[in-house]
Amino acid sequence: MSKTRILVLVRDGQVPPASLDGISDTQLDAWKAEFDVCETLRNLGHEVLPLGVYDDLAPIRNAIQEFKPDITFMMLEEFHGVVTYDFAVISYLELMQQAYTGCNPRGLLLSKDKALSKKVLTYHRIPTPRFAVFPVGRAIRRPKKLSFPLFVKSVVEDASFGISQASIVHNDEALAERVRFIHEKTNDRAIAEQYIEGREIYVGVIGNSRLKTFPAWEMNFGTLPPEVARIATSSVKWDRGYQKKHQITTHAAKDLDDATQERISKICKRVYRALSLSGYARMDLRMTDQGEIYVIEANANPNIEYGEDFAESAESIGISYEALLQRIINLGLNYKPAWMNV
Hints:
CATH architecture of the largest domain: 2-Layer Sandwich
Distance between the termini: 31 Å
CATH class of the largest domain: Alpha Beta
Helix content: 25-40%
Radius of gyration: 20 Å
Largest sheet: 6 strands, antiparallel
Number of helices: 11
CATH topology of the largest domain: D-amino Acid Aminotransferase, Chain A, domain 1
Strand content: 15-25%
CATH superfamily of the largest domain: ATP-grasp fold, B domain
């Protein structure tokens, strides 16, 4: 394997140390994905330079000019604290004629905006819950086509930001209250979508033009009480104590016949292409007891730390973590942005 010079872009303050000696689990949580990626790439024989970035592009330019990376590994999820600005950083890399891993600017822009992505999916007749968008400062009126219960969340925030049991609403008063909460918390639009009762399914997709889906992974909500909605709240996703208390886990989806797995795979590939994604992504789905499959959202550049769903599902079909990261590097090196066609 040839040695590659890799610049790894991470959020300022999350540059991982060279060693885990003396590091607590709490400290590790903040930059485990960054450490896993950098350490694994080094073990593969590559030359790696992690760079912390917050609101200034100059360090990126300087690193490209001085370090001369063959590729930049994109781990930034925001810029200047704005989650939708990751596409601008990738656009800057393209303007610098710099190869990068993960999704292209158009795919990032489309997938990060839940309302815009749902409009695209609806146009392509890909099943997704009905929805309405509520801008800041406008009257909160529910369209007649939307029936309760509804799931209210931010249009652009991810990682379960602002999601709790109160996100599921059953009347207009609760809808207005939750929409105002999202407005105040994010200073941005809220989206209310039809709540789909069913299994929470995650599917990894990797590729540029030739796509591969990983086995479906499922959220098991363990011993949560029956009256609690089965949704991925912040506690469900990130609170280890809460997960342990209620035996919440994720694992390979069980009892899916070959026809259902193939249908899920085809839907995920259609989403990937409809949203112009590249590199790798994770699809969040809901499957009802009747076998209906709904696309909740597409996540470009999802969490790829070792032991998390994306890497685990890849490993379940024999793709080791090392091989997964190398494949992501190769896809980035082989991706053809517009500047290469001029």
